[in-house]
């Protein structure tokens, strides 16, 4: 085996044999990034570099540990979101590649903006933002097509569902899985469920993998879009790019980009509702309902976007954080709010999308 091939395999073995330690280190570094801004010169750049790096490394660790978790803990329930996301990745290599590319871009977008602003000035920063938003739109439109015109969910990568505290070092657990020759997929044999409570564990295993909605395939957990809902989804994808182009034309102090973005998002959001009952359409699946609720939360970001932030929100946030500063324990949160205000005010990607921390 060549050195280049041995290094990743050695790293995989270290991760598999030290799952709890790896997870603990990730959590500690991620927590550190929340308190770094404002602590020293360029602290926000260091914080964002750490946050983006640990996020990307976390996804890589998940790709290693998830398979081992399925082998050791086959009875662990699998969420609808993960069933759908994994099925989408398996539907085509291009869908998997685009999903990974979009995740990487979203993970490093703020860091790239910070570097552009620091070393290139306003002009380079503006071009960087436009380039990143264009790449994201292209990736999302591709995913819309590759998924069969299905609603894009909040993330393109499976969630971490396994409990690392219940995992043993991989070297201490005998191999029990087998790989199908035709599909190449890994399977857990029923014999791996053997134990003092075989029937209960077998039932857990079957329930964990049973579809709770009437669908022939995990991809059917998100329905195909047609009519106004399809138009609304396309507009939702285009909205961040339209927002940037409007800022480029009218300036960041104009309310025109802010209002345009809000109206486009409201129209997109409204296509998920029945115009007569003003309730969510009955045809929406559970995953789609969860995504609509998440998108409703995204409207709060308009309070943090200029010029509304500078004219209204900032003053009230400063007053609120000042009132907290005199109270024991929670005064810590006052400092965090004050440290983040310049980031919300000066960096586009901190408030432009719902993929922030």
From TrEMBL:
Q: Where in the cell is it found?
A: Peroxisome membrane
Grouped into one coarse class, the protein's main location is: membrane
Which keywords accompany this UniProt record? Answer: Peroxisome, Peroxisome biogenesis
Is Nucleotide-binding one of the keywords UniProt gives this record? no
Family of this protein: Belongs to the peroxin-16 family.
PANTHER family according to UniProt: PEROXISOMAL MEMBRANE PROTEIN PEX16 (PTHR13299)
This one is known as Peroxisomal membrane protein PEX16
Q: What organism does the UniProt record list as the source? A: Polyrhizophydium stewartii
